[in-house]
Amino acid sequence: MNNTTNRQITLHHFGSPAEVAQLKRNPVPEPKPGEVLVRSHYAPINPADLNVLEGRYGKLPPLPAVIGNEGGGRVIDVGGDIDTFCTGDQVIYLQRNDCWQDFVLARPEQLLIVPDALDPMAASMLKINPSTAWLLLHHFVDLQPADWIVQNASNSGVGQAVIAIAKAKGWRTVNFVRRDELIAPLSAAGADLVVLDNDAGKATALEAIGNAPVRLALNAVGGDSALRIMSMLAEAGTHVTYGAMGRRPLKIPNSFLIFKGLHVRGLWLSRWLNSAPRAEIENVYSELVQLMLKGKLPQPIDCVFAPEQIVQAIQKASQPRRDGKVLLDFRPTGSEER
After folding, report:
1. Which residues contact residue 298 at a Cβ distance below 8 angstroms, ignoring those fewer than 6 apart?
2. Of 80, 88, 99, 246, which is most buried by a Cβ count within 10 Å?
């Protein structure tokens, strides 16, 4: 073991994220029969992680807890009774909420093998944003070529993945953003139309799409922004909420339900991961991996921090203006190798 310890980002009480996340060192676990030991490489800091630290997420862990909803690494040891994983396999964590640690002891169904050709940084960001975008675009409306989709929070990780997947599938996107400087980069990334998230932006969008019906609206903000994209839907259109960045409730006019017959739905990735057949999960991630390998689904990275820099990493991830994800780097170096 070479005196290796397991660095873990732990939470003992809820509060301000940069204040309550703590780095602890514990012994490296050993796999028992039916278990796989993974050496983590990278793990992103997502809004859901910050919400957990604050105690504001939909499902909170019993404390104390190791935290982190996403990440990836390589298998370094396999317990008995397992023939689906081998030492050296590159994997991502699926049904795990303790990814911010050097070593993760997992059951086979909690892991997914991904190709060695997939960059480890990209692999670490595969679980949440790309799959959420995929489900938003495939599970609610049977979209046809050249269909329009409208979304807010378009510069978020999910929003950018929606743009990339829609472009690859031949669907068109109307993208609302809060700042002028986001329009050019999203347009360069393949967005068909990018406008400011206000009434003037809505008017511009409606003029651009003309009489084409909008059948799907994707909401991660709430409040007036959610109402704005909902109002653009055609009769019997579908509005899906998957986040609440604005921390504003969703208020639905009665007329939208009575006269337009809109469908109002919600998506929580964790529920899908816990309930979908394994074959479906593998198929979705296989499609996403292929898009990544072809360069059609980029995952922007702003900066990378060591676990010992968790305070600075969380502070950076909490800032509204970034150029991509903040990653934690758990890769082994020197004497840390197991």
Report:
1. 160, 164, 189, 292
2. 99
Q: Are strands 238-241 and 111-113 parallel, antiparallel or unpaired?
A: unpaired
Where in the sequence is the domain holding 319, given as residue range(s)? Answer: 6-126+299-336
Distance of alpha carbon 176 from alpha carbon 153, whole angstroms: 7
DSSP 3-state of 150: strand
Q: Is residue 1 part of a domain?
A: no
Q: What residues act catalytically?
A: 57
CATH number at residue 198: 3.40.50.720
Q: In whole angstroms, what is the distance from residue 327 CA to residue 299 CA?
A: 12
Query: What φ, ψ does residue 207 adopt, rounded to 5°?
Result: -65, -40
What are the pLDDT digits (tens) for 80-125?
889 999 999 999 999 999 999 999 999 999 999 999 999 999 999 9
What pLDDT does 248 receive? 80
The number of distinct structural domains making up the chain is 2
CATH of the domain at 71: 3.90.180.10
Task: Output the pLDDT for position 247.
Answer: 74
Q: Which among 231, 251, 270 is the end of a domain?
A: 270
- Cut 0.70: pTM above it: yes
The residues, any chain, with a CB within 8 Å of residue 71's CB and separated by 6 or more, are: 40, 41, 42, 43, 44, 92, 93, 96, 99, 100, 104, 124, 328, 330
First-to-last C-alpha distance (Å) of the chain: 5
Can you tell me the distance from the alpha carbon of 163 to that of 44, in angstroms, rounded to the nearest whole number?
Answer: 21
Residue 1: which pLDDT band, with cuts at 50, 70 and 90? very low
Residue 93 within any structural domain of the chain: yes
pLDDT tens column, 240-260: 999 888 778 888 999 999 999
Is the residue at 58 inside a domain? yes
d(C-alpha 133, C-alpha 273), whole Å: 14
Position 335 scores a pLDDT of 38
